[in-house]
Amino acid sequence: MIRVILPQNLRKLAQVEGEVKVDVVGQVTQRSILDSLEATYPMLRGTMRDHVTQQRRPLVRFFACEQDLSHEPPDDPLPDAVVRGVEPFIILGAMAGG
Amino acid sequence: MSGVRVLVGTRKGAFVMTSDEKRERWDVSGPHFAGWEIYHLKGSPAEPNRLYASQSSGWFGQVIQRSDDGGTTWEPVGNQFAYDGTPGTHLWYDGTPHPWEFARVWHLEPSLADPDTVYAGVEDAALFRSTDGGQSWRELPALREHDSGPSWQPGAGGMCLHTIILDPSNPERIFIAISSAGAFRSDDSGVTWRPINRGLTSKEIPNPTAEVGHCVHHVAMNPSRPNVLFMQKHWDVMRSDDAGESWQEISGNLPTDFGFAIDVHAHEPETVYVVPVKSDSEHFVPDGKLRVYRSRTGGNEWEALTKGLPQKDCYVNVLRDAMAVDSLDSCGIYFGTSGGQVYASADAGDSWAPIVRDLPPVLSVEVQTLK
Questions:
Q1: By the 8 A CB rule, do B356 and B28 touch?
Q2: CB nearest A9 (choices: B60, B79, B82)
Q3: Any CB–CB contact under 8 A between A77 and chain B?
Q4: CATH number given to A2-93
Q5: For residue A48, what is the nearest residue in chain B, using CA coordinates?
Q6: How far is A24 from chain B (nearest CA, A)?
Q7: A3: which strand partners?
Q8: ipTM of predicted complex
Q9: pLDDT means per 10 residues in chain B (371 residues)?
Q10: Where do the domains of chain B lie, and which CATH numbers do they carry?
Q11: Contact B43/B367 with Cβ under 8 angstroms?
Q12: What is the nearest CA distance from B265 to chain A, expressed in angstroms?
């Protein structure tokens, strides 16, 4: 299971508290985590990436293992600690004013 | 027993306020969708407990929420607003072509007859419709594909389709307005559109009487007289007696004819309300006084309504969708301010009292009359 931390706004939208855990089939990447998240919580579709282009929304960031992975290709494998569930995959809103 | 439900959208959430027909004591619920911008909420005339809300965020995009119990509980529905085909370009602020890009839903207008049918006016300007209670949305593309579309330019707030009026006497007639393109009308349920801006004069565009390009801020109609429209333009308050074919200025003795909000009394179709704002560079009420102006003559002759409103050191704005009227026997008028106050008048504007004083900046106010 992959541990995911959603930003507060999306936790409220998905009606979840704390971390969520998702199953990922195949390689664990940004894309496969988001695919799984959106399948489990359909109300999150379009909030983290564009419906059509699948590109990350400009003010959404992906962190893991104290690294900013936002600009990494979405199909690149994520760190082993995320794959093993030791570290969470963190989705957050960029610091961009109030 | 009669009552009202006031739906308030703010920069940081939605609020639902209910009262009996006296409109003196209020129950306030919210914030719903805390932290999100709620550009608009509106209830279905066909099923008053069916509400739609536009929830958006610069970070997380657009969400549409639906309630089937009058706003007690909500459910996210469809949020994919894809332009039909290849959307092409409009003009950007610097005059260069710019691709049409969806930003947010400014206005939701439920059908007069079917609670599952609702229209959405969006930025960049286009009209969408859902016929399944908001689960899926399809553009009515002929509006955006109007010959003038490539020349539309955004106003300061973005190129938004902010006004949708459904004609109660003609189910095929729809009025819409866009900043800064102007007003348009369809007489065939959105299959074709034409601009209805004859008589508007805007010094801010190269040809002040051009067919399109006017910064229309809001349009209002009394349902009993659907051919009579009232418009608050960037500058100028206007009226049309022929469903938008032509417009005449009715600013008359207003202290300034800049403003955003305009509405019409529910039972007196010649009684009109505006909130004059100082200027396009000073978006606050003039002289530090919050005054609603009422005309009982369909325009030109206006009286200031001040009882219960701050008349000193007040510098708020009232946005285009932030005024509404109920249809109780004694018509109620409501408006919200950029300072977070929502005021109500249960006597057609003669006197006012705040429902709440300290909300986030108010983006929209709608009211449902519950009988």
A1: yes
A2: B60
A3: no
A4: 3.10.20.30
A5: B60
A6: 23
A7: A21
A8: 0.93
A9: 94 98 97 97 98 97 98 97 95 94 97 98 98 98 97 92 98 96 98 98 94 97 98 97 98 98 98 97 97 98 98 98 98 98 98 98 98 86
A10: 36-187 (2.130.10.10)
A11: no
A12: 38
